[in-house]
Amino acid sequence: MILYFDFDGTIANTAPAVVQAMQGAFRTHNLPVPLQARIVNAMGLALPSMVEGLAGKPLPPQKVAEIIQTYRALYAELPAAMITLFPGMKTLLERAHAHDMTMAIVTSKKTDALQRNLADLGIAGLFSTLVGSDMTARHKPEPDPVEEAQAQLGFPAGPELVIGDSGYDMMMGRSAQLPTCGVTWGSQNASALRQAGADYVATTPEELWDVIEAQAATPAASAPRSGTPG
């Protein structure tokens, strides 16, 4: 069984840190500061797309790059305690690892930032590969992050599942022709996840484990591909 996890909003609650750093970046560059809800809803996009969307108007590429640079600097300065694992997720990850499931993270943040977060949370050793935004030319909702993870893992055989909290994760999984499970403790609710094509929706880590177990018992060839919610 191969599990492709999103990080922000799925494994860890990074929203307080992302919101503070993003609002600080916009404030630094004398731009209207986006509301928390808009920032959280945009999480999952690569930073250039996220910044342009939050600005609400076209920005010169150089300005986008400057905002991103400021955001990353502010994010790196925040205390590690601002980023926490969602309740039950460490148990789920350790359980999957104990069952010899292969786990990867596909994220819209840079790989070095992800590595730092995983180390701070004490879960870095559970994952076989990490794919950050710096490792693919195209990002969520395109299939490239998952396809890069598959390539790094040697295109393993067996059931696969894409897990995330945003519609971008679901669309990425669908584009890669993989079954998807949305989780509701992050940025989007069950309805939005289903509209984005989630095959399954979990409201707790316990429900997510049930989906994983069911998918692990499903031959890869017959795994859902239609986007019909479970």
UniProtKB/TrEMBL annotation:
InterPro entries: HAD-like_hydrolase_sf, HAD-like_sf, HAD_2, HAD_sf, PGP-like_dom2
This protein's record includes keyword Hydrolase: yes
Pfam families the record matches: HAD_2
Keywords carried by this UniProt record: Hydrolase
This protein's GO CC annotations: cytosol
Biological process terms in GO annotation: DNA repair
Gene Ontology MF terms in the entry: phosphoglycolate phosphatase activity
Name by which UniProt lists this protein: HAD family hydrolase
